Amino acid sequence: MKAAASLVVGASAGEAGRRAAALARDDLEARPELAVLFASGHYSAEAHVLLDAVSEELGRDEPDQVPLVGCVAGSVIGAGQEVEGVPAVSLWLACGFDPPGVETFSVEYLGTASGGLFAGHRFEPGGGPYLLFSDPFTFPLEELLEHLNANVSGALVAGGVAGGGVAGSRSSELFLDGRVLHEGAVGARLAGVAVDLIVSQGCRPIGSPYTVTKAEGHMLREIAGRPALERLEQLAAGLAERERALLEGGGLHLGVAMDEYRDHQGRGDFLVRTIMAADPHTGSLLLAGEIGVGQTVQFHVREATPAGQDLRDALEREADRLAGRGPAGVLLFSCNGRGSNLFPIPDHDAGMVATVLGPVPTVGFFAAGELGPVGGKNFLHTLSASLAVFR
Fold first, then answer.
1. Considering only CA atoms, which of 326, 325, 331, 315 is closest in space to residue 93?
2. What's the CA angle centered on 5, arms 76 and 354, to 5 degrees?
3. Handedness of CA 229, 235, 238, 241 (dihedral sign)
4. Percent of the chain surpassing pLDDT 70
5. Do residues 32 and 66 lie in contact, with contact meaning Cβ atoms separated by under 8 Å?
6. For position 105, what pLDDT does the model report?
7. 3-class SS at 331?
8. Which of 72, 179, 87 is nearest to 135 (CA)?
9. Using an 8 Å Cβ cutoff, are 28 and 93 in contact?
10. Given this model, what pLDDT does residue 81 score?
11. Least confident span in 59-73, 98-112, 339-353
12. How far is it, in rounded angstroms, from Cα 211 to Cα 52?
């Protein structure tokens, strides 16, 4: 397959859409079979204008509409850059897929008296990898991932949670072909596509692992028979000054072991969840994600150096798998806690991709949660970088 990418910064919605489509289409020099579009939150109110411009430009002299997915995000990635704080649009085009090629779709969650169901697309075993972009307010993403893990073998997912709408609006903009959707999720089934899905965690464990002995939903009550906050305070008291500073600077998170049966849990073996708040009266910790009794947990800290090294290691392993053949294209989904919020240098994740894998057409966005498989199972991650590397 072949891919091309474009990045347009600082233009109006219509102009940004036209320019991004023209640049990527001219570079591809073939009819696109898939388009992936991301726009910064500055285009939230004019998402339909942007999408119309892209669709019109891509459809010029073409009999059929190009399948397209994407979303409005906080910030976008493209052309080796991470564009934060200014209007930007990135577009990725690809062609040359083997049959049956690419299928774009939407999924919605329908609540029922007995729980709920997912409608709009049937995930089939062996259906190949998927791209998925979801609205955080109307779509229970972790429930879908649990369903796929339990019932749909081979349905591995990469992507992220949209987070670029107007602050306080509780609304997102998702792109599907020629439509802008405000709820649910959109995706692309990549059957017949040679793609490697990679996840790089952004935290490192500190202290020792413990077993959860009391929990309710998002509330972690007790760890190893003691209040969770008490365990955290014990840990903090024994840390070096540098690590205590990381905790006090908002860098504290909790890792939940993805495989309870491993003899040794280390970096990358945990699903990292943000600690949202602590209740000094009950000693409980509020997590950004549910926790259950019997799970193995370990406190983690967010730190630029190990996060950067973990991404480099993952990319170097991928370069070895490619055996000297550069990838055709890359889609990169980085946590919105990365970028300038974590690294002292600009364009860290995008620049690392270019350094290790070469000048490959790459676009992506900063997500409010990143999708990617670990050990053959799908997870919603925090502070990670998730990549789809197309061979």
1. 331
2. 75
3. negative
4. 92
5. yes
6. 96
7. strand
8. 72
9. yes
10. 94
11. 59-73
12. 52
Query: What are the residues whose beta carbons fall under 8 Å from the beta carbon of 89, sequence distance 6 or more?
Result: 7, 8, 11, 16, 17, 20, 37, 38, 39, 40, 43, 50, 76
- Choose the weakest-confidence range: 139-143, 211-215, 269-273: 269-273
Report yes or no: 53 and 310 within 8 Å, Cβ to Cβ. Answer: no
b/e map of 2-38 (b: 16 or more CB within 10 Å)?
bbbbbbbbebebeebbbbbbbbbbeebeeebbbbbbb
Residue 168 confidence class, pLDDT cut points 50, 70, 90: low
The DSSP 8-state label assigned to residue 380 in this structure reads E
Q: Containing H/E element for 318?
A: helix 304-322
Amino acid at 196: D
Single pTM value for the model = 0.89
Domain boundaries, the chain: 2-200+307-390, 204-302
Amino acid of residue 371: L
Cα distances from 215 to residues 130, 212, 218, 265, 293, in angstroms, run 33, 7, 8, 21, 6
Please give the Cα distance from 135 to 52 (Å, whole number): 21
Q: Which two tokens stand for residue 229?
A: 């906050």
Q: Which of 120-124, 178-182, 249-253, 288-292 has the lowest mean pLDDT?
A: 249-253
Please give the C-alpha separations between residue 200 and each of 103, 119, 301, 312, in angstroms, as whole numbers.
27, 31, 15, 9
Whether the CA torsion 285, 290, 296, 299 is positive or negative: it is negative
